[in-house]
Amino acid sequence: MRKRLGTMVGDVVRSVFKKPATQLYPFERKPAPVAFRGKLVWEPEKCAGCMLCVKDCPANAIELIVLDKVNKRFVMRYHADRCIYCAQCVVSCRFKCLDLSDEEWELASTGKEPFTVYYGKEEDIAFLLEKMARDNAGEGPSCGEE
């Protein structure tokens, strides 16, 4: 018992005079490693709407909403809270329009809203959100409500 106590006291005294091993994050930041898998990035101008990314996503984190396939008007709804960052969607994309960012990886939030990200042209996203708002407003009362 005495031997263990002596070892512990020795460790405590030595640690008082050592520099801390932790860094003062977020004030001191290290760059992300090469090929780091952060937030999904989508380039809509390259997308052909084949939906392989949606089919191959094991977490169902990607939705591709087709507004007009002939004119290549798509909106991608990305659920970052579901994503497991496996990069299967990036590998599956034939048109190289998906990538995982090595710059956007600090994704913590206190609410769920920031985790649903819409990608596409601003006017297409605005059109989709207006349509969703109209559809939700036009619904009657849900079960159990009057």
Automatic annotation (TrEMBL):
GO terms for biological process: aerobic respiration. Keywords: 4Fe-4S, Iron, Iron-sulfur, Metal-binding, Repeat. It comes from Anaerolinea thermophila (strain DSM 14523 / JCM 11388 / NBRC 100420 / UNI-1). GO terms for cellular component: membrane. The keyword Transit peptide does not apply. This is Iron-sulfur binding protein. Residues 38-67, 74-103 form the 4Fe-4S ferredoxin-type domain. GO terms for molecular function: 4 iron, 4 sulfur cluster binding; metal ion binding; NADH dehydrogenase activity. SUPFAM superfamilies: 4Fe-4S ferredoxins. The keyword Iron applies. Transmembrane segments: none annotated.
